[in-house]
Amino acid sequence: MANQSQLAFQDASSPIMEELVEFHDHALMVALMICSLVLYLLTLMLMEKLSSNTVDAQEIELIWTILPAIVLILLALPSLQILYMMDEIDEPDLTLKAIGHQWYWSYEYTDFKDLSFDSYMLPTTELPLGHFRLLEVDHRVVLPMESPIRIIVTADDVLHSWTVPTLGVKTDAIPGRLNQTSFITTRPGVFYGQCSEICGANHSFMPIVVESTPLTYFENWSSLLAS
């Protein structure tokens, strides 16, 4: 869960998010080196007298042509690798279908016969002590940890977006279309997200809560809810 003084990302709870955070740090270091080099050259030009030797310096021109290309390759290769990892969906242990409405989410566990529910934001007057305002829901999405999860996202009315930052998941919900993605939760916990597509007056009041639990707890929860 993010806090007001937090400067970095939330703690990653999936392998994809770990890769995204690592790539962010990698790109940030590249940007820092570029800014440092440009600042050094600007300072050098202001402090030193210009020399006529730099007018026809083909070596320098060759360097500042090849060096940006190398930097772009260093950024593009890990970026493409992460993109392919995010699109790759192996054999999932569980499939969850999320349907966006104005302004709540509906969930269907397609591997079970009758396991579906609607998830509404809890009003402030009904919020239990210690829970987060505008983020807590009446029915959480419970998923087993360390299991490949496939989520199918669609919408019933307008555009929505199913987003959980700590899992590295952001998938648009489009009426008449099924989008899918996958993730694996690496630790137990409660992870919060929100709709990330402006979908109307109450866009900011349709949160997402994912509860990652051990497999035995999930089996007990699903059997109790299905019955």
UniProtKB/TrEMBL annotation:
Residue ranges of domain Cytochrome oxidase subunit II transmembrane region profile in the record: 1-90
Transmembrane segments: 27-47, 62-84
Catalysed conversion reaction: 4 Fe(II)-[cytochrome c] + O2 + 8 H(+)(in) = 4 Fe(III)-[cytochrome c] + 2 H2O + 4 H(+)(out)
Keywords: Copper, Electron transport, Magnesium, Membrane, Metal-binding, Mitochondrion, Mitochondrion inner membrane, Respiratory chain, Translocase, Transmembrane, Transmembrane helix, Transport
Cofactor-binding details, from the entry: Binds a copper A center.
One Pfam family of this chain: COX2
Native source species: Cacatua alba (White cockatoo)
Domain Cytochrome oxidase subunit II copper A binding: residue ranges: 91-224
Designated name of the protein: Cytochrome c oxidase subunit 2
Function text: Component of the cytochrome c oxidase, the last enzyme in the mitochondrial electron transport chain which drives oxidative phosphorylation. The respiratory chain contains 3 multisubunit complexes succinate dehydrogenase (complex II, CII), ubiquinol-cytochrome c oxidoreductase (cytochrome b-c1 complex, complex III, CIII) and cytochrome c oxidase (complex IV, CIV), that cooperate to transfer electrons derived from NADH and succinate to molecular oxygen, creating an electrochemical gradient over the inner membrane that drives transmembrane transport and the ATP synthase.
GO cellular component, one term: mitochondrial inner membrane
Cofactor requirements of the protein: Cu cation
Top-level taxonomy: Eukaryota, Metazoa, Chordata, Craniata, Vertebrata
GO biological process terms, semicolon-separated: ATP synthesis coupled electron transport
MF terms in GO: copper ion binding; cytochrome-c oxidase activity; oxidoreductase activity
Domain of life: Eukaryota
